[in-house]
Amino acid sequence: MNLETCLACLRETCDPDPLVEHWDESVASLPAETPSWLTPAEISAHREYCGLGASADEPLLRAAKMIAADPALKLLAWHCYRRLYVHTESGGFSDWPGLDNALGDLAGALYVLVSLAMVPQVKAAHAALGVADEVTRDTCFQVECFALNYRDAHGGRWGILLGQLFWLRHYTAGRLFRIGRFEYKIEPYHGPRAYRHERTRDVVALADDGARFNAEGFIPIGGERNEGDFTATLEERADRVVGYPISPAGMAMHRRVALDLAEWRPALAKGDLTLDMHIPSGGGMRPEACRDSLSRAPAFLAATFPDRLCVGVSCVSWIYNTQFEDMLGPDANLVRHMRELYLYPVHSSGKDGLYFLFYTDDVDPATARRDSSVRRAVLDHVAAGNRLRCGGMFTLTEDIAHYGTAHYRSRWPGVLNLLGD
Q1: How far is CA 2 from CA 16, 79, 115, 230, 280, in A?
Q2: 148 with 187, same domain?
Q3: Structural domain span for residue 164
Q4: Average pLDDT over residues 273-290
Q5: pLDDT at position 124, please?
């Protein structure tokens, strides 16, 4: 069956181009029997392992029966499986068919079934690395997170947002692991360089050479220019580094300082390996859960990849938007978490976070859902004519033990006294 015929059988009018890569190989390799990951026993086992409740069995098993009985659906499901797990270099799935005509209320279930099929592959990858089953199971919970996002956006129906499907490749490759609340993979660091004082162990980050900031110390959104903007410089001399410091609260300071290299040592630079942290949806940001995850992650990754030692944890996310400190107030768990880290400014689109909160970047504050404190705060912010920022963070491994003390911020006034002009 060629691709055009398959889509016609499914009554889909989508552009076939995003699906064409490796189509002939999928057709040639399609098994005569039902793939094992579409059988009731494996569906239920994988569903349970990924944390989906037993209530998912009935719709998923019903969808699997429909897929197995329909040649076009079976072929599309097989092609999706192979594109996701075999041809991992191929593109994403954002433009794949929604399948409303072929599956009705179960339209998204095909993609849940393909997602659940990652379980044996994640188990095998983790077993080869000596990873404990607790971590493997927690890592596979991402399927539940994605399914909950879809249900939240589609009135309780089962599915996976197509724009998120590609992300599962990280788990089957054995490079992204969930340790408690957060997920981690080893990646080169791309943020501002940081230095540590030999005696006090204080830390200061310096802005990149040529980075432009507005009067508040943030990178202007969309390249806009306003009065009060300034451009940072960073100069390395034999005995000192001269640049513009970044406050751990997340903004660059319009002040040039000098770090005496007899007292300040490089602690974090571009290209250094860090634990690139990701924040799965649906788990809250309780301080004890955040601390537990950050405390356990470095030892786990060091034991799993002893030849790839990391100097800290880093992340760029809409979560680390410093505007939340005003929008949510000091007692919000998210704000309390942010205060434990060294924040820094990054480039922003002005709509950062909208997709993750509302599953679209185009949000009408007058009609969008206001069923959580974060959603209400963001909608009020946007309704007032404001734009949203993104933010970056790091915490050095040595400093994770201080989580709960606002370590970087509480020491910042003293740090400024250590800097020369």
Answers
A1: 11, 12, 24, 58, 38
A2: no
A3: 3-175
A4: 93
A5: 97
